[in-house]
Design brief:
about 230 residues; mainly alpha; two-stranded antiparallel sheet; 8 helices; elongated
Length: about 230
């Protein structure tokens, strides 16, 4: 916020042509708000000196309350979102639809979902915390390994990620590959994706990748690279 803006705002609220008795209080009220919100108060300090002289300043306003923290995403919410993502990459729109139908209730619940079944009777969430797709393929094991609905491993026990064609996307040592198995750094892989998808599609995805937690970050890298490989914008 610039001093010019503050001066303009104040001028619209306080007529400076005639100095009223309450000008000092009004100037200080605006100044207090500017300081409270960490705005540039230089212009207001000059106006305060002009209208208030040597009058003592009132105590500062208390700091604004912190913004409310977003509700923590439940594990079940995150797991179902991952399942939908992997089903999409595995070209199973029928499974994506069934999984996405469960996401709103899982993400609205502060606690964990009880074990339940898909409409066809296949177990979805098991008592040990593992998940199955509606086609009975394992989605997530109890110890955290992820699979596509085609039974291809997405994330192995060692933390390595793979594309739906089983090519390693990110090795356990942190090196990356494109879906064609070319070795790249992460920046090179993202650049490879952006050349194929364009700045608008790629820019938003890259921004999300850099701000995501580790497990989701790697899944988003796989998703972006696979879309680039398949030519899906």
């Amino acid at each position: 916020m610039t001093g010019r803006w503050l001066a303009t705002a104040l001028a619209s609220a306080i007529p400076l042509a005639a100095i009223a008795e309450d000008d000092c209080a009004r100037v200080r009220a605006v100044k207090a708000l500017a300081v409270r919100h960490q705005l540039d108060a230089a212009t207001l300090e000059k106006l305060e000196a002009m209208h208030c002289g040597d009058k003592p300043s009132p105590p500062p306003l208390p700091p604004p309350p912190p913004p409310p923290q977003a509700a923590r995403e439940s594990r079940d919410c995150a797991d179902l979102q991952m399942m939908a993502r992997l089903a999409r990459l595995g070209s199973r729109p029928d499974i994506v639809k069934l999984v996405e139908e469960q996401i709103p209730s899982a993400c609205a619940s502060p606690g964990e979902l009880a074990p339940f079944k898909w409409p066809n009777g296949i177990a979805a969430k098991r008592p040990d915390g593992s998940w199955q797709y509606p086609n009975a393929a394992i989605a997530k094991t109890a110890d955290g390994r992820w699979q596509y609905p085609t039974n291809v491993t997405a994330r192995g026990y060692d933390g390595a990620w793979r594309y739906p064609n089983a090519v390693t996307a990110r090795r356990s040592d942190g090196k990356y590959h494109s879906p064609t198995a070319a070795t790249m750094t992460l920046d090179e892989l993202l650049g490879w994706c952006c050349e194929r998808l364009g700045k608008e599609r790629c820019g938003q995805a890259v921004e999300r990748i850099h701000s995501a937690p580790d497990e989701l970050k790697e899944a988003l890298v796989v998703e972006l690279a696979w879309d680039a490989y398949r030519g899906r914008r």
